[in-house]
Amino acid sequence: MPRRKEVPALGSLCLQSLARHMQNVWVKDYSENYLDEYQFRYVMGPFNDLAGSLVQDLIRLLGESRRLTRAALHLLLLPHLRELSLRPCPGLASNAIGQLVALRCKSLSSLDLHGCSRLSADVLVDLAEGLPQLSRLGLAETQANVQVLSAVGSCCRRLQELDVSHCKKVSPRALRHLAYDPLARSLCCPTLRVLLARGLEPTRDGGMVAALAFLLLALPRLEFLAHGTVPDALRLLHGRQLDGTGDAEGFPSLEELARLRGAAPGGPQLTLPLLRLEEVEEPALAAVHAVCPQAEEASVWLGDGPGPAGGWELLSWGRLARLTLGCAGQRGRVLAEVLPLARSLGPRLQTLALHGFCCQDELSLAALLASCPGLQAFSAELHAPPDASPNGETPAEPPRWDTDLLPHGLPQLQSFSLALASTTGIFPAQHGLALCATLASLLCHAPRLQTLRLLGIPFPLDSVFETVLAAPGPPLLELQELSLAESRVSGRTVWLLLASEGRLRRLDLSHCRDVHRRDYDGFLQVVRKQRLDLDITWE
User: Fold this and answer.
1) Residue 460 to residues 1, 103, 172, 382, 454: CA-CA distances in angstroms?
2) Would you say 273 and 253 are in contact if contact means Cβ atoms under 8 Å apart?
3) Nearest to residue 173, comparing CAs of 97, 93, 251?
4) 138 by DSSP, 3-state: which?
5) Radius of gyration, CA atoms only, the chain
6) What are the E-state strand segments in 393-466?
7) How many whole angstroms separate alpha carbon 67 and alpha carbon 376?
8) Among residues 205, 198, 157, which one has the least CA distance to residue 175?
9) Phi, psi (5° rounding) for residue 450?
10) Distance in angstroms (rounded) separating the CA atoms of residues 210 and 191
């Protein structure tokens, strides 16, 4: 049975009380007498003795509940804050608030201004110059520009993570200023590991590709650069077709930067310390693999070419542990084509996500899972075979499923998601028998499973859960979130879940055609009567 609702922790209750009474008690005197009359450098108030982590929690709680006001923010911008996120209240983040942050919060190591578009570029420059201890800075969807990134690069020497996604004024030139100071003729951001630059305005002259190549060479510790044209920049570096001259602003050429990285013309192949790669198309795999041999995570779009999915480049990626494969071709790929890759990388794969594959062979999913015993997270969106047709009579389901299809199970698995799409055809009945046997065996041998999503499964799942919940152990003790949206499951399974041991907290039954209103009302009645900490969704 799902657990009963726990008594909230005392600290949480205190913060909720503060949030409820913030306006009419804690900030009443300040907002009525001082808010618009004075510009205080510091404010001595009731929150000065509150730990910085609790102050940030209070700001987040006020923002999420829409109780945060300008007066409350004035009182909560305290010198001992280590982390500050204004993401919950971007409308309150004015230039005046930005100046207060730069003035008061000198000890900040993390500042998130995501969506704070009211802050001018000048104020963002002041923040970068006034907060030199920052290790994380979020500027997504702000007015960040060349001057801002130049200040960040020159002043934030400890910066490890930066987000400038969807900043309309961040140009290729601005990105170069982040990594190099032309006036001082020196490299900047020596400790930057993560740079998120998604959604930046593209350029027609290829300037963005060259700028990203500049970043890859100029930032020695960069492990992840998020932008859609990073694979193009890596291909440029792999081809060694590098510009040998600088520009009028004083930036070094790509060839000069490559020499600093020990990759002189005719010398050894340039390699970079990137650990995570996104949006790599199959034709670019060879170049990307050569330049980034230490990659641990990659998302790859596959074409219609022959051979194993991802070709031989993925097979030889020695440290790859997290992999996403998507089908971009017109014909698509069958799931069985992933098996050579799974057998090669399987023992060290921790995360595997598959999108758009066709489930031609009913046993390919079981074979794939059996090849990856160390998986911690698995997700797949599979299509029906395009030429499949109903196979006459539906085979009878056994009263109990054999759970030995995956005898070794997935002992580390924490998240499993499977979505079946029938837009290209109908799943044959034989696929249903194999899938149910696979699921029954998997769920019986995944003791750490916390999240389970079975979406759009067109085969009856009641017998699967009956088999699993009756198995010794019992299984699913750690399961906290279960989604069966648009799948064939009835109220019988839900009653079994309510009567079983476990930690289930969320159950999604959206568009389950075999669950009716009277069933849903009965579930809610039990949850209320027994005070279970369980949220059930149905429509």
Assistant:
1) 23, 62, 54, 18, 12
2) no
3) 251
4) strand
5) 28
6) 415-421, 451-455
7) 39
8) 198
9) -115, -30
10) 22
Closest alpha carbon to 77 in 57, 59, 61, 94: 59
Residue-wise pLDDT for 438-493, tens only, equals 999 999 999 999 999 999 999 999 999 999 998 887 789 999 999 999 999 999 99
pLDDT tens, 123-176?
999 999 999 999 999 999 999 999 999 999 999 999 999 999 999 999 999 999
Is residue 4 within 8 Å of 526, Cβ to Cβ?
no
113: phi then psi, degrees, rounded to nearest 5:
-115, 25
Q: Map tokens 């990285």 to a residue.
A: 261
Helix (H) or strand (E) holding 354: strand 351-358
Rounded to whole angstroms, the Cα distance separating 67 from 74 reads 14
Q: Dihedral (C-alpha) 300, 305, 308, 314: value to the nearest 10 degrees?
A: -30
Angle, in degrees to the nearest 10, between helices 517-529 and 491-499: 10
For residue 242, what are the CA distances in angstroms to 113, 271, 538? 36, 15, 58
Q: Which amino acid is at 209?
A: V
Could you tell me the end-to-end alpha-carbon distance of the chain, in angstroms, rounded to an integer?
23
Give one DSSP letter per residue of 52-114, joined into a string: HHHHHHHHHHHHHTT---HHHHHHH--TT-SEEE-TT-GGG--HHHHHHHHHH-TT-SEEE-T
Verify cis geometry, omega within 30 degrees of 0, for the bond prior to 474.
yes
Residues in contact with 538: Cβ distance below 8 Å, sequence separation at least 6, in sequence order: 509, 510, 512, 515, 520, 523
Find residue 358's DSSP bridge partners.
Answer: 334, 383
- For 521, other C-beta atoms within 10 Å of its C-beta total 10
Write out the two tokens for 333.
Answer: 């790929």
How many CA atoms are closer than 13 Å to the CA of 136, on its beta-carbon side? Answer: 10
For residue 409, give the H/E element and its range: none
pLDDT tens digits along 89-122: 899 999 999 999 999 999 999 999 999 999 999 9
* Cα separation, 126 vs 497, whole angstroms: 56
CA distance 354 to 215: 30
Q: Tokens representing 264?
A: 């002189």
Average pLDDT over residues 52-72: 84
Q: Looking at residue 2, what DSSP letter applies?
A: P
Q: Greatest CA separation found in the chain?
A: 82
